[in-house]
């Protein structure tokens, strides 16, 4: 994947966030965490999901713009 200088998430990786979310879900499902840890990890996962959603929305806008420029020619 190409990284851009204007990306405000330097060092941020969609794939890594997905792995982190999957690991949190696995720990919760396995019963490895006490209730307070479940809540904290759930909050972390929700924030990561929001970041992923924002990333995907931005990329979708870029794709739509590229497609629009192709169809305008």
Automatic annotation (TrEMBL):
GO molecular function annotations of the record: exodeoxyribonuclease VII activity
Top-level lineage group: Bacteria
UniProt KW Nuclease keyword: yes
Signal peptide start and end residues: none
Localization in the cell: Cytoplasm
Top-level EC class: hydrolase
Catalytic activity: Exonucleolytic cleavage in either 5'- to 3'- or 3'- to 5'-direction to yield nucleoside 5'-phosphates
EC id: 3.1.11.6
InterPro entries from the UniProt entry: Exonuc_VII_S, Exonuc_VII_ssu_sf
Example of a GO cellular component annotation carried by this entry: cytoplasm
Gene3D superfamilies registered for this protein in UniProt: Exonuclease VII, small subunit
GO biological process, one term: DNA catabolic process
Pfam families: Exonuc_VII_S (PF02609)
Keyword flag Cytoplasm: yes
Alphabetically ordered keywords of this record: Cytoplasm, Exonuclease, Hydrolase, Nuclease
Family statement: Belongs to the XseB family.
Subunit description: Heterooligomer composed of large and small subunits.
Cited function: Bidirectionally degrades single-stranded DNA into large acid-insoluble oligonucleotides, which are then degraded further into small acid-soluble oligonucleotides.
The protein, known as: Exodeoxyribonuclease 7 small subunit
Organism: Nodularia spumigena UHCC 0039
